[in-house]
Each structure stands twice: as structure tokens, then as C-alpha cells.
């Protein structure tokens, strides 16, 4: 996750035979649609993955 406090960008690494990176769209808390809830949902999902007992760190 990359953030400046108002905007959020999520990065993903897929470790296939050759590592590949992808990024999400830019989420902004300042736009009229307010992306706060989608950002919060993504962060909750990341927390669940990281807290799994079999998650390799």
C-alpha cells in the first residue's frame, strides 16, 4: 500500500516463474464518491490474510 493520507494505491506481487507486479486504481478520500469504505474493506481483507496461521512471512 502506498498512501499520502488522502490517496491510496495498492500493489500486488504475483510470484510466478517471473515476478510480476500490478497496481490498483488510485483511491481518493477527497473525491465526491469518497473511497473511504472501499479502502477500509481492502485493509480489512489484508489484515485477515496476514493474521492467518499458515501465512508465510
Biggest beta sheet attributes: 3 strands, antiparallel
Number of helices: 1
Which strand order do you get reading across the main beta sheet?
1-2-5
Helix content: 25-40%
| Number of structural domains | 1
Instruction: Write down the overall mean pLDDT.
Output: 89
Secondary structural class: alpha+beta
User: So what's the overall shape?
Assistant: flat
Task: Tell me the series of helices and strands, N- to C-terminal.
Answer: EEEEEH
User: Which regions contain 5 or more consecutive residues with pLDDT less than 50?
Assistant: none
- Computed CA radius of gyration, to the nearest angstrom: 13 Å
Distance between the termini: 17 Å
Strand content: 25-35%
For the secondary structure, the number of strands is 5
Amino acid at each position: 500500500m502506498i498512501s499520502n493520507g488522502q490517496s491510496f494505491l495498492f500493489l500486488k506481487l504475483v510470484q510466478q516463474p517471473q515476478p510480476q507486479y500490478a497496481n490498483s486504481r488510485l483511491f481518493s478520500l477527497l473525491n465526491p464518491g469518497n473511497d473511504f469504505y472501499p479502502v477500509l474493506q481492502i485493509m480489512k481483507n489484508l489484515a485477515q490474510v496476514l493474521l492467518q496461521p499458515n501465512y508465510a512471512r
